[in-house]
Write a structure and sequence with these properties.
Shape: flat
Strand content: 5-15%
Structural class: alpha+beta
Number of helices: 2
Distance between the termini: 54 Å
Helix content: 25-40%
Order of helices and strands: EEHH
Low-confidence stretches: none
Mean pLDDT: 88
Length: 70
């Protein structure tokens, strides 16, 4: 009989002003969210709004600012 080992992944993201503190998984999550920016122009308006709000929460965009991939 095989027993399964429970894996716990803890995501740590702390945004304090202009400083962001992360652990390994938090960093990976931020990188994946940032990669979604390459598809920003293909997103619906609602998808873009949600993406912008996530980026604002992560501190990579200022409040009210919108994402622009150049």
């Amino acid at each position: 009989m095989t027993t399964k080992t429970k894996t716990i992944k803890e995501f740590y993201i702390k945004v304090d002003g202009n400083e962001t503190r992360i652990n390994k998984y938090g960093g990976e999550l931020i990188d994946l969210i940032d990669d979604l920016g390459w598809d920003y122009q293909c997103m619906t308006c609602g998808g873009r709004e949600t993406y912008d709000k996530i980026q604002q929460l992560l501190g990579t965009l200022q409040e009210g600012e919108i994402y622009m991939r150049i």
